[in-house]
Amino acid sequence: MTEAQSLAPLATLPGDLPVLAVLQTLPLAAGLLLLRIKGDRSALALALTAALAELALGALLYLRLDHTNPAFQFSERWSPLPPFNYHAGVDGISVLFILLTGLVCLLLVVYVPSRGLRPTPLVLAVLLAVESTLMSLFTTLDLLWFTLVSTLELGLTGYLLGRWATSPAGDPALARFYQFMVTGLALLLMGTLMLGWNHADQRDGVWTFDLTELAAVTVNPALSSVVFYLLFYGLAIRTPLFPFHGWLPQVAEHGNVALAPALLLGLKVGIYGLLRFVFPLMPEAVLEWNAYVVAFATAGIFYAAILALLQVNLRRLLAFAVVSHTSILVIGLFSLGTSAFQGSLILSVDFGLAITGLLLMTGFLYRRTRTTLLPRLGGLFDRIPLIGIAFFVAGLSIVGMPGTPGFDAAHLMLEAAIERFGGLVTVAAALGNVAAAAFLLWAFQRAFLAPPRERTPRPIAPASTAERLIAGTLILVLLGAGFYSEPWLELVDAPLEALSGRFGLGQAHP
User: Fold this and answer.
1) Do the beta carbons of residue 192 and residue 249 sit within 8 Å?
2) Is there a contact between 354 and 406 (Cβ–Cβ < 8 Å)?
3) How far is CA 384 from the centre of its chain?
4) Do residues 266 and 359 touch, judged by C-beta distance below 8 A?
5) Would you put residue 336 in left (φ > 0), alpha (ψ -120 to 50) or beta?
6) CA-to-CA distance for 436 and 68, rounded, in angstroms?
7) Considering only CA atoms, which of 201, 203, 245, 246 is closest in space to residue 227?
8) Angle value at C-alpha 193, between 192 and 199, nearest 5 degrees
9) Which residues on adjacent β-strands are paired with residue 140?
10) Is the pLDDT score of 98 beyond 50?
11) Which pLDDT score is estimated for 183?
12) Torsional class of 433: left (φ above 0), alpha (ψ -120 to 50), beta (otherwise)
């Protein structure tokens, strides 16, 4: 796959429906309507309808997408005030994240009333508004639009995080969250503006932030490393990658249990931003600095794994699990090559769904026990077995056990890592995965199987219909995708082979 083919002119599929515009605006319109609704049942019905419609639109994109074509499809353009342009299009990578977003947000809509969050219409309205921004992030082909919408998305998510926090220390946690995110956004914006200036410098003063137009010019070598690190650091903070994860443990412990964390951690916007913008636009800088990034990621695996094993709070344990596993993802991502990208991307989506499952199950535990301290839990499996099974399956999925989507993805990633970096880094990544198994299985044992510490344990309510629906859906999707992963690999194969071609590492298919 040549460089020109990897960022070919946009291909538009026939159809009268501007499906990408609808995908982005439908949740926002439903959220605005929710602000005028008083009854919880009416609000839930509207939110469920909107979330189901979003998932259906994602399925429509999947069915109509030409999986063999690496070009962006369903193209939509609007230029009201250049260089501030609306430019949307999708490929297999985008559709995979769109489907994940639709499913996660649908599960969160069902989760909201089961947790008794009030006022329900307001919670659902903000949740749908966040979904709208996420869909925009996964469809835009304009880097400035991506940066500005990221600002709106993180602001709304921060509102969810602080407005429905479960701890008196929620305000300091929220302040820390905004400190880190504003820093990341500032770095991302500076890198974006420098790329626009570089284009203007080479194209007679024409400013643009469009992906295909930015890729048509080379980045000034004097700027290359600076721009790479600005974009990389800006995305690494929200991913979160060691050592830029300082906001996460405090936010996980003192924010709300599952709602905002699932949006921040279950949908890897940072990984998507690297694949969509940084790698295509700056292949030379990626090749120059990838060994340094991998070195930090390798250190992060063990740093976070050790801290996870020391935690007594389940929420903090899951936070460090995210940091450790994200480091494994980044090693795969910076191994480059089609199989490396495939493994990292599928592992990212698998991890996003799995961590969402762990967070939701933790929310159900907190609803019953009013604590996430592991020494105060135990003996829960007999009362809520389906929730326990969902927690267990999600944990196994994170560590890439056979029968889960992470199994094939981890093998692709590790094979690419050993080819590019040799045995040391690959063994470190594999050992990090073993450590993840240790602390997640240990958490499952203490929360569900260990005898309760209290002499007179409080009554534990059985799982509600909504909880059983969420847990059952997560189990079926994780196991189904694990045993039938070929469609997802085929979905992303063409665009990822095109991307690897920019590094001279494309794989020929028979």
Assistant:
1) no
2) yes
3) 28
4) yes
5) left
6) 36
7) 201
8) 95
9) 88
10) yes
11) 95
12) alpha
Whole-number Å distance between alpha carbons of 495 and 491: 9
- Tally Cβ neighbours within 10 Å of residue 197: 14
Can you tell me the distance from the alpha carbon of 43 to that of 114, in angstroms, rounded to the nearest whole number?
Answer: 14
| Helix pair angle (92-115, 338-369), 10° resolution | 0
Distance, CA of 430 to CA of 298 (rounded, Å): 11
Distance CA 292, CA 423 (A): 17
Q: How far is CA 378 from CA 329, 373, 448, 457, 458, in A?
A: 32, 10, 5, 10, 11
Q: How far is 230 from 14, CA to CA, in rounded Å?
A: 38
Q: Distance between terminal CA atoms of the chain? A: 14
Q: Which residues contact 16 (CB under 8 A, 6 or more apart)?
A: none
d(C-alpha 331, C-alpha 314), whole Å: 26
User: Going by C-beta distance under 8 Å and a sequence separation of 6 or more, which residues neighbour residue 92?
Assistant: 65, 67, 491, 492, 493, 494, 495, 496
Q: 10 Å Cβ neighbour count for 11? A: 15
Contact assessment for residue 500 and residue 337, using Cβ atoms and an 8 Å cutoff: yes
Domain ranges for the chain, please list them.
3-501
pTM higher than 0.70, yes or no?
A: yes
> What six digits make up the tokens of 101?
């977003």
d(CA 361, CA 79): 44
Element (H, E) at 89: strand 84-90
| Residue-level pLDDT at 6 | 44
Structure tokens at 210: 């469009």
- The pLDDT tens digits for 437-465 are 778 888 898 889 888 766 545 678 888 89
Q: Are 90 and 74 in contact (CB under 8 A)?
A: yes
**Contact 2/71 with Cβ under 8 angstroms?**
no
The Cα 467–Cα 477 span in angstroms is: 15
Q: Regarding beta strands 73-81 and 84-90, do their DSSP bridges make them parallel or antiparallel, or are they unpaired?
A: antiparallel
Please report, as a single letter, which amino acid is at residue 107.
L
Cα 70–Cα 72–Cα 73 angle in degrees, nearest 5: 110
The C-alpha atoms of residue 334 and residue 293 are separated, in whole angstroms, by 8
Tens-digit pLDDT profile for residues 392-435: 999 888 877 777 777 778 778 878 788 887 777 778 777 777 77
As a whole number, mean pLDDT of residues 457-483 equals 87
